[in-house]
User: Fold Electron transfer flavoprotein alpha subunit from Ilumatobacter coccineus.
Amino acid sequence: MAIDNIWVFAQADGGTASTGTLELLTKANSLGGTVTAFVAGSAGDAAASLADHGAAKIYETGDLAGALPGAAVSAAMKAVIDGGDSPDLIMFPQNYEGRDVMSRLSVKLDRTVLTNSTDISVDGDSVSVQTPIFGGAKIVTSTFTGEGPFIAAFRPKSFEPAGGVGAAGEVVSAPVPDLGATGGATVTAVHVEETSGPKLDEAAVVVSGGRGLGESEKFEMIETLASVLKGAPGASRAIVDAGWVPYSYQVGQTGKVVKPTVYIAAGISGATQHMVGMKGSKNIIAINKDKEAPIFGVADLGIVGDVHKVLPQLLEALAAR
Ligand code: FAD
Assistant:
Protein backbone atom coordinates (compact mmCIF):
# COMPACT_ATOMS: atom_id res chain seq x y z
CA MET A 1 0.00 0.00 0.00
CA ALA A 2 1.38 3.41 -0.90
CA ILE A 3 0.16 6.67 0.56
CA ASP A 4 -1.62 7.86 -2.59
CA ASN A 5 -4.75 9.51 -1.26
CA ILE A 6 -4.32 12.21 1.41
CA TRP A 7 -7.17 14.24 2.86
CA VAL A 8 -6.92 17.50 4.75
CA PHE A 9 -9.77 18.74 6.95
CA ALA A 10 -10.31 22.25 5.59
CA GLN A 11 -11.80 25.35 7.21
CA ALA A 12 -12.98 28.07 4.88
CA ASP A 13 -15.32 30.34 6.80
CA GLY A 14 -16.58 33.29 4.77
CA GLY A 15 -14.89 32.02 1.62
CA THR A 16 -11.36 32.35 3.02
CA ALA A 17 -9.23 29.28 3.72
CA SER A 18 -7.71 29.39 7.20
CA THR A 19 -3.93 29.63 7.46
CA GLY A 20 -3.90 26.26 9.27
CA THR A 21 -5.67 24.64 6.31
CA LEU A 22 -3.13 26.04 3.85
CA GLU A 23 -0.25 24.87 6.09
CA LEU A 24 -1.60 21.30 6.09
CA LEU A 25 -2.34 21.28 2.34
CA THR A 26 1.22 22.41 1.63
CA LYS A 27 2.67 19.63 3.78
CA ALA A 28 0.27 17.04 2.34
CA ASN A 29 1.29 18.06 -1.15
CA SER A 30 4.96 17.50 -0.30
CA LEU A 31 4.26 13.87 0.73
CA GLY A 32 3.38 12.67 -2.79
CA GLY A 33 0.01 11.27 -3.80
CA THR A 34 -3.21 13.12 -4.49
CA VAL A 35 -4.40 15.74 -2.02
CA THR A 36 -8.06 16.35 -1.22
CA ALA A 37 -9.44 19.17 0.92
CA PHE A 38 -12.58 18.23 2.87
CA VAL A 39 -14.41 21.47 3.63
CA ALA A 40 -16.75 21.81 6.59
CA GLY A 41 -19.44 23.89 4.88
CA SER A 42 -19.01 25.41 1.42
CA ALA A 43 -15.68 26.11 -0.26
CA GLY A 44 -16.97 29.19 -2.10
CA ASP A 45 -14.23 31.63 -3.00
CA ALA A 46 -11.71 29.61 -0.94
CA ALA A 47 -11.68 26.89 -3.63
CA ALA A 48 -9.06 28.75 -5.70
CA SER A 49 -6.74 29.12 -2.74
CA LEU A 50 -7.20 25.46 -1.71
CA ALA A 51 -6.29 24.36 -5.25
CA ASP A 52 -3.35 26.77 -5.33
CA HIS A 53 -2.01 25.03 -2.20
CA GLY A 54 -2.35 21.54 -3.65
CA ALA A 55 -5.98 20.35 -3.45
CA ALA A 56 -6.74 18.33 -6.57
CA LYS A 57 -10.22 17.62 -5.24
CA ILE A 58 -12.37 19.59 -2.82
CA TYR A 59 -15.25 17.92 -1.00
CA GLU A 60 -17.76 20.32 0.52
CA THR A 61 -20.57 19.38 2.89
CA GLY A 62 -22.64 22.48 2.10
CA ASP A 63 -24.66 24.27 4.77
CA LEU A 64 -24.62 22.29 8.03
CA ALA A 65 -28.07 23.70 8.86
CA GLY A 66 -27.50 23.99 12.59
CA ALA A 67 -26.20 20.42 13.01
CA LEU A 68 -23.31 19.87 15.42
CA PRO A 69 -20.30 20.51 13.12
CA GLY A 70 -18.20 17.60 14.41
CA ALA A 71 -21.06 15.13 14.08
CA ALA A 72 -22.09 16.39 10.64
CA VAL A 73 -18.65 16.59 9.03
CA SER A 74 -17.42 13.26 10.41
CA ALA A 75 -20.62 11.60 9.12
CA ALA A 76 -20.11 13.20 5.69
CA MET A 77 -16.50 11.98 5.62
CA LYS A 78 -17.56 8.46 6.60
CA ALA A 79 -20.22 8.44 3.87
CA VAL A 80 -17.62 9.34 1.21
CA ILE A 81 -15.25 6.67 2.53
CA ASP A 82 -18.04 4.06 2.52
CA GLY A 83 -18.80 5.19 -1.02
CA GLY A 84 -15.34 4.03 -2.14
CA ASP A 85 -13.04 7.06 -1.92
CA SER A 86 -11.01 5.90 1.05
CA PRO A 87 -7.97 8.01 2.02
CA ASP A 88 -4.71 6.50 3.21
CA LEU A 89 -4.07 9.46 5.50
CA ILE A 90 -6.25 12.23 6.95
CA MET A 91 -4.60 15.35 8.39
CA PHE A 92 -6.39 17.59 10.88
CA PRO A 93 -5.46 20.91 12.47
CA GLN A 94 -5.10 20.65 16.25
CA ASN A 95 -7.86 23.16 17.00
CA TYR A 96 -11.40 22.94 18.40
CA GLU A 97 -13.07 22.09 15.10
CA GLY A 98 -10.35 19.65 14.06
CA ARG A 99 -10.51 17.83 17.39
CA ASP A 100 -14.28 17.67 17.26
CA VAL A 101 -14.36 16.07 13.81
CA MET A 102 -11.34 13.76 14.15
CA SER A 103 -12.39 12.20 17.43
CA ARG A 104 -15.82 11.32 16.06
CA LEU A 105 -14.33 10.04 12.80
CA SER A 106 -11.82 7.96 14.72
CA VAL A 107 -14.70 6.16 16.46
CA LYS A 108 -16.68 5.74 13.25
CA LEU A 109 -13.69 4.22 11.43
CA ASP A 110 -12.28 2.42 14.47
CA ARG A 111 -8.87 3.95 13.79
CA THR A 112 -6.54 5.60 16.24
CA VAL A 113 -5.47 9.27 16.05
CA LEU A 114 -1.99 10.62 16.69
CA THR A 115 -2.41 14.12 18.06
CA ASN A 116 -0.27 17.14 18.89
CA SER A 117 2.14 16.41 16.05
CA THR A 118 4.55 18.88 14.50
CA ASP A 119 5.89 16.90 11.55
CA ILE A 120 5.11 13.90 9.35
CA SER A 121 7.06 11.75 6.95
CA VAL A 122 6.10 9.03 4.50
CA ASP A 123 8.41 6.20 3.47
CA GLY A 124 6.67 3.81 1.09
CA ASP A 125 3.59 2.66 2.98
CA SER A 126 4.98 3.72 6.35
CA VAL A 127 3.74 6.97 7.93
CA SER A 128 5.48 8.49 10.95
CA VAL A 129 4.62 11.61 12.92
CA GLN A 130 6.70 13.59 15.35
CA THR A 131 5.33 14.83 18.65
CA PRO A 132 7.15 17.08 21.13
CA ILE A 133 6.89 16.02 24.78
CA PHE A 134 8.09 17.52 28.10
CA GLY A 135 7.46 21.02 26.79
CA GLY A 136 9.40 20.36 23.60
CA ALA A 137 12.53 19.01 25.35
CA LYS A 138 12.11 15.62 23.60
CA ILE A 139 10.60 14.58 20.27
CA VAL A 140 8.79 11.24 19.97
CA THR A 141 8.50 9.62 16.53
CA SER A 142 5.47 7.30 16.18
CA THR A 143 4.73 5.09 13.18
CA PHE A 144 1.21 3.94 12.30
CA THR A 145 0.66 0.21 12.06
CA GLY A 146 -2.26 -1.78 10.64
CA GLU A 147 -4.79 -0.55 8.12
CA GLY A 148 -5.45 3.08 7.14
CA PRO A 149 -6.88 5.60 7.03
CA PHE A 150 -4.18 6.91 9.33
CA ILE A 151 -5.39 10.00 11.21
CA ALA A 152 -3.06 12.67 12.59
CA ALA A 153 -3.54 16.15 14.06
CA PHE A 154 -0.95 18.90 13.83
CA ARG A 155 -0.18 21.91 15.95
CA PRO A 156 -0.69 25.28 14.25
CA LYS A 157 2.42 26.74 12.57
CA SER A 158 4.03 23.34 12.13
CA PHE A 159 4.43 23.99 8.39
CA GLU A 160 4.89 27.03 6.14
CA PRO A 161 2.03 27.52 3.66
CA ALA A 162 3.20 27.80 0.05
CA GLY A 163 0.89 28.49 -2.89
CA GLY A 164 1.57 28.30 -6.60
CA VAL A 165 0.80 24.57 -6.94
CA GLY A 166 -2.07 25.08 -9.36
CA ALA A 167 -3.86 21.78 -8.61
CA ALA A 168 -7.21 21.05 -10.29
CA GLY A 169 -9.41 21.90 -7.30
CA GLU A 170 -12.45 19.98 -8.59
CA VAL A 171 -15.33 20.73 -6.21
CA VAL A 172 -17.48 17.70 -5.31
CA SER A 173 -20.52 17.67 -3.05
CA ALA A 174 -20.31 15.49 0.09
CA PRO A 175 -23.70 16.04 1.75
CA VAL A 176 -24.28 15.27 5.41
CA PRO A 177 -26.22 12.00 5.74
CA ASP A 178 -29.05 11.43 8.20
CA LEU A 179 -27.45 11.86 11.65
CA GLY A 180 -29.97 9.69 13.48
CA ALA A 181 -30.38 10.55 17.16
CA THR A 182 -27.36 12.92 17.02
CA GLY A 183 -29.35 15.05 14.58
CA GLY A 184 -31.65 15.92 17.47
CA ALA A 185 -28.94 18.16 18.93
CA THR A 186 -28.61 21.50 17.18
CA VAL A 187 -26.49 24.61 17.53
CA THR A 188 -28.73 27.31 18.99
CA ALA A 189 -26.25 30.21 19.24
CA VAL A 190 -22.73 31.04 18.13
CA HIS A 191 -20.68 33.69 19.90
CA VAL A 192 -17.88 35.27 17.93
CA GLU A 193 -15.46 37.23 20.08
CA GLU A 194 -14.98 40.79 18.80
CA THR A 195 -11.36 41.59 18.09
CA SER A 196 -9.54 44.31 16.23
CA GLY A 197 -6.14 44.09 14.55
CA PRO A 198 -4.46 40.91 13.38
CA LYS A 199 -5.22 37.51 14.93
CA LEU A 200 -2.79 36.45 17.65
CA ASP A 201 -1.64 33.32 15.81
CA GLU A 202 -1.27 35.11 12.48
CA ALA A 203 0.25 38.46 13.54
CA ALA A 204 3.75 39.44 12.38
CA VAL A 205 4.33 41.16 15.73
CA VAL A 206 3.12 39.84 19.10
CA VAL A 207 3.52 41.79 22.33
CA SER A 208 2.83 39.65 25.40
CA GLY A 209 2.53 40.65 29.02
CA GLY A 210 2.98 38.60 32.17
CA ARG A 211 2.66 38.81 35.92
CA GLY A 212 5.58 41.25 36.01
CA LEU A 213 3.14 43.96 34.86
CA GLY A 214 1.95 43.96 38.46
CA GLU A 215 -1.75 44.73 37.91
CA SER A 216 -4.39 44.26 35.22
CA GLU A 217 -4.61 47.98 34.35
CA LYS A 218 -0.99 47.89 33.18
CA PHE A 219 -1.93 45.50 30.38
CA GLU A 220 -3.05 48.63 28.54
CA MET A 221 0.66 49.30 27.83
CA ILE A 222 0.84 45.92 26.08
CA GLU A 223 -2.26 46.66 24.00
CA THR A 224 -1.00 50.11 23.05
CA LEU A 225 2.43 48.83 22.04
CA ALA A 226 0.82 46.00 20.01
CA SER A 227 -1.43 48.50 18.29
CA VAL A 228 1.43 50.91 17.49
CA LEU A 229 3.43 48.02 16.00
CA LYS A 230 0.33 46.76 14.10
CA GLY A 231 0.59 43.51 16.02
CA ALA A 232 -1.51 41.47 18.43
CA PRO A 233 -1.43 41.45 22.24
CA GLY A 234 -0.72 38.14 23.98
CA ALA A 235 -0.34 36.95 27.55
CA SER A 236 1.14 34.38 29.87
CA ARG A 237 -1.22 31.97 31.59
CA ALA A 238 -0.52 33.61 34.95
CA ILE A 239 -2.45 36.72 33.96
CA VAL A 240 -5.14 34.77 32.11
CA ASP A 241 -5.74 32.72 35.26
CA ALA A 242 -5.77 35.96 37.26
CA GLY A 243 -8.60 37.20 35.04
CA TRP A 244 -6.70 40.18 33.62
CA VAL A 245 -7.25 39.12 29.99
CA PRO A 246 -9.35 36.46 28.22
CA TYR A 247 -8.05 32.96 27.53
CA SER A 248 -7.91 33.75 23.79
CA TYR A 249 -4.80 35.88 24.57
CA GLN A 250 -2.84 33.00 26.10
CA VAL A 251 0.40 31.92 24.44
CA GLY A 252 1.87 28.54 25.30
CA GLN A 253 1.32 24.85 25.74
CA THR A 254 -2.33 25.23 26.69
CA GLY A 255 -2.83 28.41 24.67
CA LYS A 256 -1.86 29.48 21.17
CA VAL A 257 1.34 28.70 19.32
CA VAL A 258 2.75 31.82 17.66
CA LYS A 259 5.65 32.31 15.27
CA PRO A 260 5.73 36.03 14.53
CA THR A 261 8.63 37.96 13.07
CA VAL A 262 8.94 39.80 16.38
CA TYR A 263 7.79 38.54 19.81
CA ILE A 264 8.08 40.90 22.76
CA ALA A 265 7.74 39.31 26.22
CA ALA A 266 7.25 41.88 28.97
CA GLY A 267 7.33 40.74 32.60
CA ILE A 268 7.21 37.06 31.61
CA SER A 269 9.57 34.64 33.35
CA GLY A 270 9.84 32.13 30.49
CA ALA A 271 8.34 28.96 31.97
CA THR A 272 8.68 25.94 29.66
CA GLN A 273 4.92 25.91 29.10
CA HIS A 274 5.02 29.51 27.86
CA MET A 275 8.11 29.05 25.73
CA VAL A 276 6.74 26.10 23.71
CA GLY A 277 4.20 28.57 22.37
CA MET A 278 6.61 31.28 21.24
CA LYS A 279 10.17 30.02 20.93
CA GLY A 280 9.75 29.52 17.17
CA SER A 281 9.39 33.32 16.77
CA LYS A 282 12.01 34.81 14.43
CA ASN A 283 13.15 37.57 16.80
CA ILE A 284 12.45 37.49 20.54
CA ILE A 285 12.77 40.56 22.72
CA ALA A 286 12.45 40.06 26.48
CA ILE A 287 11.99 42.70 29.15
CA ASN A 288 12.46 41.43 32.70
CA LYS A 289 13.94 42.91 35.84
CA ASP A 290 15.57 39.59 36.78
CA LYS A 291 18.66 39.00 34.65
CA GLU A 292 18.47 35.27 35.53
CA ALA A 293 14.93 34.90 34.11
CA PRO A 294 14.76 31.86 31.76
CA ILE A 295 13.15 33.96 29.02
CA PHE A 296 16.59 35.51 28.37
CA GLY A 297 17.78 32.02 27.37
CA VAL A 298 15.72 32.23 24.14
CA ALA A 299 15.82 36.02 23.64
CA ASP A 300 17.67 37.61 20.73
CA LEU A 301 17.53 40.92 22.58
CA GLY A 302 17.26 41.02 26.36
CA ILE A 303 16.43 44.17 28.29
CA VAL A 304 17.09 43.86 32.03
CA GLY A 305 14.78 46.46 33.46
CA ASP A 306 11.45 47.41 34.96
CA VAL A 307 8.55 47.10 32.49
CA HIS A 308 6.99 50.19 34.04
CA LYS A 309 9.98 52.20 32.89
CA VAL A 310 10.99 50.39 29.70
CA LEU A 311 7.53 50.16 28.07
CA PRO A 312 6.61 53.87 28.50
CA GLN A 313 10.04 54.85 27.14
CA LEU A 314 9.57 52.54 24.18
CA LEU A 315 6.09 53.96 23.47
CA GLU A 316 7.45 57.50 23.75
CA ALA A 317 10.29 56.73 21.33
CA LEU A 318 7.88 55.15 18.83
CA ALA A 319 5.50 58.12 19.11
CA ALA A 320 8.39 60.47 18.33
CA ARG A 321 9.18 58.67 15.07
P1 FAD B 1 5.85 34.56 36.61
O1 FAD B 1 6.44 33.22 36.41
O2 FAD B 1 5.39 34.92 37.96
O3 FAD B 1 6.95 35.61 36.10
C1 FAD B 1 6.82 36.98 36.22
C2 FAD B 1 8.14 37.57 35.73
O4 FAD B 1 8.02 38.97 35.74
C3 FAD B 1 9.35 37.21 36.60
O5 FAD B 1 10.37 36.67 35.76
C4 FAD B 1 9.78 38.52 37.22
O6 FAD B 1 11.20 38.65 37.32
C5 FAD B 1 9.26 39.51 36.20
N1 FAD B 1 8.96 40.82 36.77
C6 FAD B 1 8.33 41.10 37.94
N2 FAD B 1 8.17 42.43 38.07
C7 FAD B 1 8.73 43.00 36.97
C8 FAD B 1 8.89 44.34 36.52
N3 FAD B 1 8.40 45.37 37.23
N4 FAD B 1 9.52 44.56 35.34
C9 FAD B 1 10.03 43.52 34.62
N5 FAD B 1 9.90 42.24 35.01
C10 FAD B 1 9.24 41.97 36.15
N6 FAD B 1 1.93 29.37 30.99
C11 FAD B 1 1.78 30.07 29.85
O7 FAD B 1 2.21 31.21 29.73
N7 FAD B 1 1.14 29.48 28.78
C12 FAD B 1 0.63 28.23 28.83
O8 FAD B 1 0.03 27.78 27.84
C13 FAD B 1 0.79 27.49 30.03
N8 FAD B 1 0.32 26.22 30.12
C14 FAD B 1 0.56 25.52 31.26
C15 FAD B 1 0.15 24.18 31.33
C16 FAD B 1 0.40 23.46 32.48
C17 FAD B 1 -0.03 22.01 32.53
C18 FAD B 1 1.04 24.06 33.58
C19 FAD B 1 1.31 23.27 34.82
C20 FAD B 1 1.42 25.37 33.53
C21 FAD B 1 1.19 26.12 32.38
N9 FAD B 1 1.56 27.46 32.29
C22 FAD B 1 1.44 28.12 31.12
C23 FAD B 1 2.04 28.22 33.48
C24 FAD B 1 3.52 28.39 33.53
O9 FAD B 1 4.11 27.28 34.17
C25 FAD B 1 3.90 29.66 34.33
O10 FAD B 1 3.32 29.58 35.60
C26 FAD B 1 3.45 30.96 33.68
O11 FAD B 1 3.86 31.00 32.33
C27 FAD B 1 4.08 32.13 34.43
O12 FAD B 1 3.60 33.34 33.92
P2 FAD B 1 4.48 34.67 34.08
O13 FAD B 1 5.79 34.48 33.41
O14 FAD B 1 3.62 35.79 33.64
O15 FAD B 1 4.61 34.80 35.66
